[in-house]
Amino acid sequence: MNLDSLRNYYGILIVLITLVSRIIFIGFSWSYGTVIVEFKKENSTLSDAEMSWIGSIGQSFGGLLAPLILFFARQYGFQITFGLSLIVCVISLFISSIIRNLHWLLLTYSLPYGFGNASIFIIGTLICGLYYPAGQHPKHVLVMCIISIGFPLGYHIMDALMFSSIQQNGWQIMKRNIATIELVATCLLTPFFTTKFLPSTSQPYPYPSTTLIPDTKRKIYYSKPVIYWMLGIFSAMCAVNNFLLHLHSHLEYLLISPARADLWFRLLGLFDALFRLLIPFIVRCYPIEIIYLFPTSAFIGIVVLTLTFGLLYTSLNAIAILPIVLFGFTPAVVTALQYTVSNRIFEEDRTEQGYVYHVIVTSLGTIVGPVIGGLLLDMTGSYKSIIPTSIFFLFISCISFIATILLLNKKKADELEESQTASIHQHDNIAYGSAN
């Protein structure tokens, strides 16, 4: 195979590496609710809010440091940054496996794993964006949806693996076993994660490092559409993570067996993955702007969570699995298409900058949502507050997305009207000049 052929097909390997790393590493953090259940059994005095901090920070703490992660990637290269991120996660699991104190668990697992976890996520998306540029490559949306499958498949596969290991050996040995798997994955994936074989039409990084810092002269970053949109992303992630992180405990609280609760959780992951695969085909068969899928997903989330709440507390709770798995459409849209929609919210040459905004706001929502849910759980002493809290967040998200779309459409209409007016004036001036 010559170099040109290798450049054309190497992107496929990058997509597979990104997908596998998300399944193993990010999948573990999104399945950490299984560990929280066991840790709570050993430390019954701990509040749900305290336990929520452990899980949510472990999932997305590093996203708040997205500009720093991008700086490392540009300064030292994608490959080195990616490899070090994987190693940080491995070390974190080994050390935290001997910890029984909540505060030390925060320091040894949540903070380091959260940083490594976010770094794997951010760098994977950006390198795939280089091999399959947004608005240029016809497979871009498909690639973004494929790598995003790492989330649902990850908490499907890893949750089953973690649950089985905990039942046999306890949560501490389970962590060591997962750390060993992650160490092997680190050795196998890192050598091939490179930008050396980018297509000739792509650049290792096309934009200067100053784009990491918002330009105060460009009001686009502080305009109403951007603010409303980011509020929608924040609220949607609060809703999604509040529901997912408390789902396992919520089902056991309703006297649903741990095995069935685990099955429901994994089915939700499978349907989430299925919806992500269907998105490119939906867009192809029914031509619709990507941005319109966001308020649609928030509205669908409100409907299915309302049905879930109504069914769980009745004698028909066995069929609550149906709306639960349909909820997978909401996180599928909100998390899979952030990089792509940045082309619509921001200017085309600021896609990466817009994506940084999305990552930071997503991380805030992922952290804050479960904590608010945990606080309400501590105050009420009942899991009945979890689903209504997520519904409230989704309502805010839906309104924010719709407001953003209306503002962007109005801006587009105004620009079109100005363009037409200018064209008419120019035509009149030419006609007047000709007459003279």
Structure explained in plain terms:
- The chain is mostly helical.
- It has one domain: MFS general substrate transporter like domains (Growth Hormone, Chain: A, Up-down Bundle), CATH 1.20.1250.
- Helices cover 78% and strands 0% of the residues.
- It is built from 17 helices and no strands.
- Helix 3 runs antiparallel to helix 16, helix 4 crosses helix 5 and helix 8 packs across helix 9.
- The termini are far apart.
Question: What layout of secondary structure does this protein have?
Answer:
Elements: H1 3-30, H2 33-42, H3 48-60, H4 66-76, H5 78-96, H6 102-131, H7 140-148, H8 150-169, H9 171-189, H10 224-253, H11 258-285, H12 293-312, H13 321-326, H14 329-336, H15 338-345, H16 351-380, H17 386-435
Helix pairs in contact: 1-6, 1-7, 1-8, 1-9, 3-6, 3-16, 4-5, 4-6, 5-6, 5-9, 6-7, 7-11, 8-9, 8-11, 10-11, 10-16, 10-17, 11-14, 12-14, 12-17, 15-16
Return the domain count.
1
What is the average of the pLDDT values? 83
- Residue stretches low in confidence (pLDDT < 50, at least 5 long) are 204-219
Q: How much strand content do the residues show?
A: under 5%
Outline? globular
Helical content band: over 70%
Q: What is the CA-atom radius of gyration, in angstroms?
A: 23 Å
Number of helices: 17
The sequence of SSEs as H and E is HHHHHHHHHHHHHHHHH
| Architecture per CATH nomenclature, i.e. the level-2 architecture | Up-down Bundle
Q: Largest sheet at a glance? A: none
How many strands appear in the DSSP assignment?
A: 0
